[in-house]
Amino acid sequence: MRAVVQRVTRAAVRSADDESIGAIGAGLCVLVGVTHDDDVLTARKLADKLWHLRVMPDGDGVMNRSVADTTRELLVVSQFTLYGDTRGGRRPSWIAAASPEHAEPVIDALVARLRELGAVVATGRFRAHMLVELVNDGPVTVILDV
């Protein structure tokens, strides 16, 4: 699994026709790509890493705390395009991205594990065109490969 993690002051997902799908206040906005060999165990590993990732500021403004220690809020959005490969030219290849039938239960397992840990999780809508809005705090952005 691959994730782009952004520390945000707020983030939201809306449908193309402006319906609110999910939103959080301060926390982490996580764009997640699933590849063919990812499974529930991979999802649980990513959830644990996200929950304890020390990118949240402490009282001195140092990235020394996790979302578990602070806001407990995450917005998780499935993003197959994270596996776009442009090494062969200008048009991305999506071969490394898992099919929706494989990816959806893996994303569901990620969200379930985060909630099991105590997170407040908002999500995007699988297989939908979404508009993601966020205010990156810092800006802090980290790429995780699990």
Task: Describe what this molecule looks like in 3D.
The chain is an alpha/beta fold and 146 residues long. 21% of the residues lie in helices and 39% in strands. The chain has helices spanning 40-52, 100-117; strands spanning 2-15, 20-24, 27-33, 56-57, 63-65, 73-78, 120-123, 130-145. Strands 1, 2, 3, 6, 7 and 8 form a 6-stranded mixed beta sheet that branches. The longest helix is centred in the last third of the chain and has 18 residues, at 100-117. It starts with a strand and ends with a strand. 33% of the residues are buried. The model has no long low-confidence stretch (mean pLDDT 97).
Features:
146 residues; alpha/beta; 6-stranded mixed β-sheet; 2 helices; 21% helix; globular
Rg computed from alpha carbons, rounded to a whole number of angstroms: 15 Å
Q: Outline the low-pLDDT stretches.
A: none
Total of helices: 2
Provide the structure class. Answer: alpha/beta
What percentage of the residues does DSSP assign to strands (E)?
35-45%
Spell the H/E element sequence.
EEEHEEEHEE
Q: What is the approximate shape?
A: globular
> Helicity, in percent?
10-25%
Give the overall pLDDT as a whole number.
97
By DSSP, the count of extended strands is 8
Termini gap: 5 Å
Query: Sheet with the most strands?
Result: 6 strands, mixed
Give the oligomeric state: single chain
